[in-house]
Amino acid sequence: MGSLEPGHRVMQFGLMTRGQYELGDDMQQRFAELAEQVRLADRLGFASLTKGSHYSAWPYQDFQQLPYLTRMMAEAPNLRLNAGIILLPLHKPLDLAEQLATMDVMSGGRMIVGVGLGYRDVEFAGFGTVQA
Description:
The chain is of the alpha/beta class. The chain has four helices and six strands, in the order ββαββαβαβα. Helix 3 (93-106) links the parallel strand 5 and strand 6 (111-116).
């Protein structure tokens, strides 16, 4: 592989794991499989791990974004951790900011955060709010 001239950038690749599984699926087994995928991406030189966020995923079950990324930071010490997209209207801003700041410190500054408004009525209803 040749060297690059100063100022040139190399394309980077990240891994996005979904984590939605049918009801009754063995979530501990699925988590073990996801952890192995993340470790492999880390070993292969991927740049980041992304986990999206949805609530009320019925008829599926899903791993929640922030606990998932917190656990994976130990599995993949070289990957940036992308919480994207956090559904901002469904969270208390101060609580979310402190959780993300804590994760950033724990990961050595590897957090990436993306936020969005959301679009699923079931999520807004579940949190007792409406889409503005």
